[in-house]
Each structure stands twice: as C-alpha cells, then as structure tokens.
Request: fold
Amino acid sequence: MTANETALVLLALCLPFLGAVLSPIVYRIFKSYAPWLLALLPLFSLIQFVRLVPQIADGAALTGGYDWVPSLGLRFSFLLDGLSLTFAILITGIGTLIVLYSGGYMKGHPQQARFLSFMFMFMGAMLGIVVSDGLLMLFVFWELTSITSFLLIGFDNEKAASRRAALQALVVTGGGGLALLAGVLLIQHITGATSLSALFETGNVLRDSPLYLAAFILVLGGAFTKSAQFPFHFWLPNAMEAPTPVSAYLHSATMVKAGVYLLMRLNPVMGDTAAWSTVLPVFGAATLIVGTLLAIRQTDLKLMLAYTTVSSLGLMVMMTGMDVPHAAEGAVLYLIAHSLFKGGLFMVAGLVDHETGTRDLTKLGGLAKAMPITFAAGLAGAVSMGGLPPFVGFLAKEGLYEALIAGSLFATIFLVIAIIGNALMFAIGFGVGLKPFIGAKTETPKHAHEGPALMWIGPVALGLTAFLAAFFSHYFNTHFSGPMASAVAGEEVEIHLSLIPHIGLPLGLSMLTVAIALVIYWKLDAARAAMAGLLSRLGPGPDSWFDSFMRGIVRLSFRVTQTVQPGRLEFYITATFCIIAAVLLVSLVSFGEMPEWPGLPDDVHISHWVILGLAVVGLVAVITAHNRLTAIVTLGIQGFCVAVLFLLLGAPDLSFTQFMVETLSVVILTLVMTRLNLVPSDHRALGQKLFDGSIAALCGLGFALLLMRTIQVPFNDELTVFFNTYSRVIAHGQNVVNVIIVDFRGTDTLGEIGVVMITGLAILALIRVRAGKTKTQPVATEEQAR
Amino acid sequence: MEFLLSCLVGLFFAAAIYLMLSRHSVRIMLGIAILGNAVNLLIFTAGRITGFVPPIIPDAMETLPSGTANPLPQALILTAIVISFSFFAFLLVLTYRAYQDLNTDDTDDMRAAEPKDQPMPPLGY
Reply:
C-alpha cells in the first residue's frame, strides 16, 4: 500500500467516528436534511474502498499502517484483501443506506441525533475489525462493536426488556471477546506474529502446535458468541428490542458476521484440521436447524427474520468449516447475498411497522396497493433469500449445493441439512416479504401508506444491488466473490456461477428446496402451531438460563462481599496484618533468606544503650497506659527517644524535625484527648489480647528479621555517592541532606508541601463543618457568651 | 548498632500493630503515631549506620569525606516525618469529629458507611 493509500484508508476508517461527533451538530443546524448530509461520510468511505477493488481483484493483498506501540512491536496497520475489502464495502455501502433509513425511521424522536451517533460509532468499529492487520487492534475494534451494540440495543432504556437484551448481548459477546483476547495472545505466543499478514507467512506452525486446540477453542468462543451460534444464539433474537435500523445493520448485515469473518480470516492458518472441519460444520448445522425451527414459530416479522439470521449464520459457519473443494465459494457467496437480502428485508419489516403500527404477521395483509415500493423491495428480498433467480441469492444457493455434492457421507448429511434449512428459510422469507402484502386487506393501528423516500431507498438499493450482482455475475465473481473466496481458502479461487443454470444436480436440488418450501409456506400457520407445541414441551432454554446465571452472579457477589467486607474495621486491620506477617515470614523462610546471628555487639556506646532502653520503656508504657495523661506523656517518650537517636547517629536535621513534630503531636493529642471524655485503656478480653498480641509480635519479628537480613547484604551506595560527590560541585550546598531535599528532589518536596497544605485544609473543613452544624445548638450560645 | 536498631524497629512495629488492632479509635491513633516512627527507623537502619558525623561537607572540601552518616535515607525520612505528622493530625481531628457525631469510639459501632444487614441488590434488569 502506498503512503497515500494508507492515509486514505485511515481517513475512510475515521470518517464514521467523525460522523459520530458531528451528528448532534449537523442535526441541530440542518434538522430534517441532516441524514442526507451525514450519509455523505460513509459514502465517501465506500468510494474510497471501491477505488481499491481493481488492485485487489488482481490478487493483491495490501498492507500498510502506522507505529502504535513500537516498544511492544504493535502497529496500527491495515490489511486489505478480497475478504476485508468486500466486508468494508458491505459495511460502508449498507451503512450509507442505513444512515438515510435511520433518519426516516427515527424522525421526530427526541434522541435521533444520539442514535445516529451510536450508529456511526458502530460503523467505525466494524470497519476497524475488517481492515485491521494487527491482531490486538482487531480485538480492540471487536470489543468496541460489542459496546456500541450494547448502547444501540438498550437505546430504549426506559423499557426493562431493552435493558435486559442489551445486557445479555454485552455479557455474551463481551465474554466471548475475552476468550478471543486469550486466543489472540495464545496465537501470538505460538507463532510470534502480531499481525494477520505476518501470521499468514507462518504456514503450518499454528496447526502443528500442541497448543492448537486451546487456541482453536478460545477463538471459537469469540466467533460463536458474536455470530450467535448454538448454544449462544439466544441473545440475537432478544436484540430485536433495538430500533429496526439497528436490527437491519448490526444484527443481520454486519456485526453478527464478525464471528464468521474471524473464522474465514483464520481459515488459511487454522483450518483444514480434524477439529476445525468437524466442530464448525456440526455447530453450524445445529444452529441452522435450531434457528429455522424457532423462526417458524414466530409471528413478529422482526423475530422471524432474527431467527433466520441465526440459521444463516449457522450455514456460513458450517460452510467455512466444511472440508470440501468449493466450500469457501459457497460460504462467501451466501455471506454477500445474506447481507443484501436480510438487510433489505429488515428495512422492509421496519417500514411496514412504521407505516401500519404493527409487525404481527397475523394482523397484516393486502398492503401491496398502499405500499407498492415496499412490496417490490420485500419481494426482491424474499426471492433472493429463497435462492431464486434473478438475484444473487440464487448464485449463493447454487454455490452451496455445488460444494456440498462432494460425494462423501459426511458432506451429504450436511447437504440434506442445508436443503431443509434453505427450504424453511425460503418459506419464512416469503412470509415476511410477500405475505403482509397480499390477500385481504386488514385493519392496522395506523392507516397504511407508502413510507418516506429516506426509508425505501435502502431496501430498493439493496434489492437492485442483489439483482445487478447476479446479472453481471462475471464482473461480480472476478471482482468481489472470487477474491474474497481466495482470501478465505488461502489460495487462488475462481467462481464461475452465473444466472444461466447448468442442468445438473445442484439445479435439481434447488427445485427440490423450492418444492418443500412451497409446502411449508402453504401450511405456515399449521407449522407454527406445531412448533409452538413442541417448544412448550421442551421447557426453558438458554434464554432463561441466562437469567438464572445473572441472578446467581448477583447473589454470589453479594455473599462474597458480605464475607470479605463485614464492615468492621477490626476485621480489616487484622486481615491486613495477618497477611503482612505471612508475607514477611513465609518469604524469608521459604527462600532461605533468614539473617545470620551477628552476635551481641560490643562497640555500642553506653548512651545508645540508655536511649534504646528508654524507647522500649516508652513503648511498654503506651501500651499499658490507663489514663489520658499517661498515654500522652508516654507517647512523647518514645518519640523523643527516636529524635535523640537520630541526633546521636549523625542526623541532626531529622532530630530537630522529629522534636518539633513530636511536640506538636503531643499538643494536638492533648487538645483532642481532653475533649474526648475517653479512657484509653485496653478494653479487650484476654483471649483477644493474646491473639492480637501474637499477630503484632509476628509482624514485628518479620520486620526485624527483614531488616537484619537487609543489613547483611552488601550496600549499593551508588545514589549516596552521587549526592555526596555533586552536592557542592553542582548544587552549591554543603549540607547534603538539605541539598537533596530542596534541590535534587525539589519537586518531591513541593509535593510534600502540597500534601501538608491539603491536610490542613481538610482539618479546617472538618472543624468548620462542626461549627456550621452546631450553630443552632448549645455550643453556639457558649461561643456567644465568650 | 544496626542489629540493636533492627530489634528496636521490630518492637516499634509490634507495639504499633498491637495498638492498631484495638477497637478503640484513640488507641488506634496512638498505634499510628508509633507506626510512623517505626517506618522511619526502618528506612534509617536500612541505609546503614556509616558514621556518627552529620553529612555536611567541610568548607575546605568539594565532596563529602567518608565516615559520615548516609544522607539519602535522612532526606527520605525528613519527608516521611512531615507527611506522617500531617496524616496523624488529620486522623486525630477525624477521630474527634467521629466521636462527636457518632457518640462512640468503638470502631465496631461506626457503621454509617457499611451498615449492618444491607439488603441484597435488585435481581432484575
């Protein structure tokens, strides 16, 4: 990537974040024109990425970036190949449309500017995931999408259901994100590569590592939660609490595909192992079936779509993992087709909801006349979802079947699952895109008419794109799906599928799918009833387990807090000193660092002995003091002994300060103690005294032994020598201690003065509070009397 | 001398901690005052007793001659003494105010911040 291109990619990545900042301002100035203006930002990003298409189509993988944390070898770097570029184009392209759609959908909402801000933030984060080259950079953006998704799902924060759904999505995807972080670090540890492009150079290192399985499971933890794979699928339908633009953009077209993106990304270095090509298809297929069966049961248009999104994601994961020749092609074609038709269908569902006031399938019908454009867009989405020509969904389904007809029993099982899943999705797709528009006209809460241009531009443009991609299938395959499949497979792949069907097994299977689908569509109501009955017999699923899990966490943390923090100071102090004693003694003993017995000293002057003895007497006296006066005086004794000790040991500065401070301490202590009508003697029971005494003795022993050991190792006098040598020469002071305080460590002293000042202010405040409080109380009259 | 000082430091710590383990705020205050001295002596001793002469460079010399006390721990302790004093003064006033407002000097009865029988946080969303 040239420096210019790197800068432009960075700009394209930053524009959505700029939009997040600008959105409230633009809304304030331009009001209803704001969405049109704001849509220019992602449009510019889109153009930027489209300009790179020819280079990528030639098989190039562009990398470039900037240093981030050079000392850790981290770079803010980009990787653009077929996979990331197609994703980037989907994100910015659908993003442009969704900005317009949001403008229409949220029109008049008091927080519409904030909503668009969140949407832009998400767009930037999602774009960041797909253009990231650095592994940790990818993780950061990954988590950012979880957070923005949380904000968007909980946008209606006054509804408990929204709050629950938002928290659920955050817990599930955020938890998966942590697994991904561990996985990424493990991959870095195994291969030494900190970026994707470096990782691709490592060949089989990851696959052959004994830690492969751990890395694999951790990465799956991230991908499966994000892409709502069974058994983590439950958060996605709940996320439908969000406004429809969010469902269309985050929870169908882009964010939920981040997990699939990750798997496709890592396929060249982690794929083709027994674990990979078993676990992915099995979980993918399970998700596919669970998703479609749950979708049948729904009558809410958005929920039907949400569950089919779950199943589509399952299909993509299944195809990514399948170890058959053309699996990657099927997977990428389906991914692109799904983004186009599912985004469009969600927008259609939102339009219907917006214009009629309901999105309950059983209450809708005959809207075709009132909402012709919406109907056309919905039908286009349904046809593409059903895998019929002339839309790109057809290419996708042909691709899937062609890949799965590999002959092996394993592949054939998944072929059957894919056919059943596709047929069910076909039926549901038409349930959303066709059923509300035909039949007898029903009464809806609002009188139905065509929605504003802002809102239908999106689904129409997506439908048109799906058509054009299929119509110009050669250009589409060479410029988008082909390079993307090559990036996923890790080798050059060409796709030749077009709208002209080849007579063969795939076409026959397509027809079989349609036939099954038509039967289901015909009997949709009966199928729904049957499914509802079956599910009610199955009992609670992961969604209610989540509630139990969250309640369990709250209870557990409450109990832990109660045990660890009983609110008694005595407990805290005891625990602290027990640990200090243990740390000192255990580490001294277990590392064999006990001091040697030095023998009784013989060179100690008699005056030293006297002072040491006096200090001990002072300590004993404080502990045993029975009245206030004794306590104050004896506290003074030990303090002055320390001061004299400093004087004798060549530290006059310390000594003077200590004298002053001890005097002041005694004065303040006297002031306070004479007002506190308290007896300072020990109230503890004997047992308690012994226990506390042992802890204190152990701590004291620990400190003494530590100090003895310290003075037995050679002294590093580097700093002392420095100060001794330079105090006079460069700081022009003869008293070395003073020079250190006011010159070498002057800033430190300034901080100390700050601390003293703040303490003084705090003391003043404490006393003032009392004065203010007691004004109405007898003490005040006492003051007046004076 | 260093050995004797180490023993003294141990005694200072033991006395300070024994006082701090009491439930009565006045005794805790006494303990904190002693703890400050204990730590200062610890730093002082860890810097070694290299001489009894104060670290002041004579007029005729450019650098400090050997056989004087180590100036570095002294500088550190000088800061520590002042800080621990202001800390002690603040705690004393706080103790005094706490006694006035709560009418107790028993830390077990001071439950304003962490009251007994706190209710379980809400389990919903």
